[in-house]
Known about the structure:
By secondary structure, the protein is an alpha/beta fold. It has helices spanning 11-15, 19-22, 35-44, 59-68, 84-93, 95-108, 126-164, 175-192, 206-213, 215-231, 256-271, 303-318, 327-330, and strands spanning 3-8, 27-32, 49-53, 76-81, 112-115, 196-203, 237-243, 246-252, 275-276, 282-283, 287-293, 324-326. Strand 9 and strand 10 (282-283) form a beta hairpin.
Amino acid sequence: MNISILVFGNNNFRNTLPDQIRYAIAFNVEVMDNLNQAVSHIQTTPPDIILVQASLDGSMELCSWLKDQTKLSWIYCILFEDRLQQLTDRKKYGWHRELEMTAAMLKQGADAYIWHLIDETTEHNLAELTANHGLILAQLTVGLRKVQKYRDLIRTNDLLSAIALADSLTELNNRRALEWDLPRQIKKARTQKTSLSLIILDVDHFKKVNDTYGHLVGDRLLQLLCQRLRNNLRFQDTAFRYGGEEFVILLANTTGDEALIVARRLNRVVSEEPFALSNKQTINITISLGTASLEADDDEQGESLLNRADQCLLQAKTSGRNRVIDSKYLSRIPHLKAVSS
């Protein structure tokens, strides 16, 4: 586990830290003493652990700020008490002062609060320094455990998200993924003033395949179809299994005319070569496709865009299947007749 540590303190403070921190090869240690610089660094390159020198200007502000950052709450913050007044009060008022200050600093935002024995007015024996360094390293170990648990949780969440958004049969993105990605793509296209198109396609007479060869063959045919589609898409195209034998392809930075070219190519590569299910069995299929491009009055969720493409698909099936219909052609037809697959 590659650990990054940010030391918010001066170089003198850094020099009082245990050698295991200062010279550790496994740790990436950075030292900063400016609050704004530290905050900017944390936002752009979040460290795993932060060591904060309490006497440095901005230290309490940094702890409080970090506590309020929901997305950065996993960072383990250790506050080192080196303020002369606090150390003097600790000696004067005893252990109850230490408890009061510890409670106050934890409320302030620190995950751990350590009374740092190194100061300019006090000499400490070897046993005290060893015990202090042992405490620092123990708290560092606690922070490392927290970081590891966080990373494990992120990996688990990423895996679960991938499973939730993937179609298990075809390994394409599923309909839920489309419902998440389409609004995002629409917002991006409008913000960057770029074009966005989509294709919706359906396997012609797929029910006949299932009735003739069985559902296992039908499933295998869909897998082979998706492999062929993926191999003939561009890097910016994203394919989704919309349901059954119906698929949607999002075409970023693609005009309506360009989407039509992509759709015609897909139609051709599917129909021109049979699908080999085994050495002895091949099946010829065709697909019908509809295309549509984002317009100014389309809704943010993409329902109207999908509906236009779907109407084009229905028209492709009505007019004989194994063809592409785009929304420009659709706008010239006064009446559409829906057909089943």
